[in-house]
Every structure is written in C-alpha cells, then in structure tokens.
Design a protein that fits this description.
67 residues, mainly alpha, 4 helices
Length: 67
C-alpha cells in the first residue's frame, strides 16, 4: 500500500525563509491568511491528496508505463 505524507514542515520552513508574514500576508488580498492559516490549508490539502488522489491510479502505479 502506498503512503503519502505532505511535507508540511518543509513547507513551513520555505514560507518562513521567504518571509511570508512580511511579504505575502502584508498584501491586502491576503491579509486574512496568516502563516498558521496557510499551514492548516496545506495540511488539509495533504490529507485530501493522501486519501482521495493517491489511490486513483493504483493499476498504473503497479504496472508502470509500457511503450
């Protein structure tokens, strides 16, 4: 069985390294999205990917591509 875990810690590191709160969150359109909110959205997207998207092409993952 395949397992997918979204790289949330890596994503947080990148957002902090790029100064997300100082650059993106300072824009008027993103004022409501602080870093914790963005990380929660990413975590939920990761759960969705693991639960719904990962199992969609199991046969293709097992057999691979043949030319």
């Amino acid at each position: 069985m395949q397992v997918y875990k979204a790289p949330i810690d890596d994503l947080r590191f990148v957002f902090e390294a790029l100064d997300y709160p100082g650059r993106v969150a300072a824009l008027a359109d993103f004022a409501d999205f602080d870093l914790d909110t963005v990380m929660e959205i990413a975590a939920q997207a990761g759960k969705f990917a693991a639960k719904e998207l990962l199992p969609l092409n199991r046969i293709g993952d097992q057999q691979g591509v043949q030319w």
